[in-house]
From TrEMBL:
Domain of life of the organism encoding this protein: Bacteria
Domain Alcohol dehydrogenase-like C-terminal: 216-335
Protein name: Dehydrogenase
The Alcohol dehydrogenase-like N-terminal domain, residue ranges: 56-170
Cofactor dependence: Zn(2+)
Keyword Ubl conjugation: no
Signal peptide: none
UniProt keyword annotations, A-Z: Metal-binding, Zinc
Lineage: Bacteria, Pseudomonadati, Pseudomonadota, Alphaproteobacteria, Sphingomonadales
Name of one Pfam family that matches: ADH_N
């Protein structure tokens, strides 16, 4: 069945204008809708069992706003191969609807749900490496199956959140759930590439080399501006994203990476979000002596060329890893609540859940889905 037909049938079955036999209330409560990834460009809305509390410290959360992560686009288009089927979506602001008797979160509370599962008490979590929690299987996360343990997906009626008191971060009063949806992953990913660096070197200059991780690079630019960096320059051959960077207060221009091209200026802090060897080499060449370079992009080649001799003589610090989103979430939300960080400038579209399957391969930087 075509995806459009599936969505149409799903909407029709729930429409108050359609006469249906008296529903089985018990079955209604036992099932919920879930967007399921099957294969690149193929999604399906399915009725699946509703999540239940499995531990006294669990919570059940219903989504208020779900963002498409940069990685979601590349899974949906097949650039990053993930085997289906699995529940989709992992950037989410939601509302607590049920909590275990040992959980301190309460029904009705609005929360950001970080995408990685973390306990908050193991050695890695205590050190701030919540992406490597030792209490759960490796890479445990919502909405990213690919052979991993399933924890459900944000594009559904509800999810079960383990370790709720640690995992769930209250949404500050006055912050729009739509604006904060990507705080579950991509905003902290950009934040961690500039915030600790600027704390070490206040007022430092920042360069973002944009590309593959398009929203992460833009969020990094916005965070650098919000945190009082000196010059903030965003480079990208995508002119629409350059305009978004300007809205966030950064200077911007085309990347135009010619082979062996030397940068016109050097920076204290450099963020590589392009995901190509040429871009990484350009980022290294753009570093001042003793600069800090962070790669936030996934480099998908089996090997990636890095000009280590230049890095050596410049004495630069190079970091690459998955972001520990939960660690940085409170700082991100505080900056949003103060009105200094504006992730809404990155969002290019807000759509209802029913259009999620059709919109998942849209090439823009950030789509937000809301329950319909």
């Amino acid at each position: 069945m075509a995806r459009q037909s599936q969505v149409a049938l799903w909407k029709r079955a729930r429409s108050p204008l359609v006469r249906c036999p008296r529903p089985d209330r018990k079955r209604q409560r036992a099932l919920m809708r879930q967007l399921t990834f099957l294969a690149p460009k193929h999604f399906e809305w399915r009725d699946v069992p509703s999540p239940k509390l499995q531990h006294d410290r669990d919570a059940i959360v219903r989504p208020l706003a779900v963002a498409r992560c940069d990685l979601d686009l590349y899974i949906a288009t097949g650039v990053v191969p993930f085997p289906g089927p699995f529940a989709f979506g992992h950037e989410m602001v939601g509302e607590v609807v049920e909590a275990g008797k040992l959980a301190n979160v309460v029904p009705g509370q609005r929360v950001v749900v970080p995408f990685q599962i973390s306990c908050g008490s193991c050695t890695s979590c205590r050190r701030g490496f919540t992406a490597s929690c030792e209490s759960v299987p490796p890479y445990a996360a919502f909405g990213l199956g690919g052979g991993r343990v399933e924890y459900g997906g944000a594009l559904s009626d509800a999810i079960r959140v383990p370790y709720a008191d640690f995992m769930l971060v209250p949404l500050p009063q006055g912050v729009d759930p739509i604006h904060a949806a990507s705080a579950a992953d991509n905003i902290p990913d950009g934040w961690r590439a500039v915030a600790p660096q600027l704390a070490q070197y206040p007022g430092a200059s920042v360069l973002i080399v944009g590309g593959l991780a398009q929203s992460v690079g833009l969020y990094a630019a916005g965070a650098a501006v919000a945190l009082g960096a000196g010059r903030v320059l965003y480079l990208d051959d995508n002119q629409a994203n350059c305009e978004r960077a300007r809205h966030m207060g950064a200077d911007s221009g085309p990347m135009a990476l010619a082979a062996g091209r030397e940068p016109q200026e050097l920076f204290d802090i450099v963020v590589e979000a392009a995901g190509t060897s040429d871009a990484l080499a350009f980022a290294v060449r753009s570093c001042r002596p003793n600069a800090i370079l962070t790669s936030v992009a996934m480099h998908l080649e089996p090997t990636t060329a890095v000009p280590l001799s230049q890095a050596y003589y410049r004495g630069l610090t190079f970091h690459t890893s998955r972001a520990s989103a939960r660690t940085w979430l409170p700082d991100v939300l505080d900056c949003m609540a103060c009105g200094n960080l504006h992730p809404e400038h990155v969002t290019h579209s807000v759509m209802p859940f029913a259009q999620a399957a059709e919109c998942m391969t849209d090439r823009g930087p950030k789509i937000i889905f809301t329950p319909d």
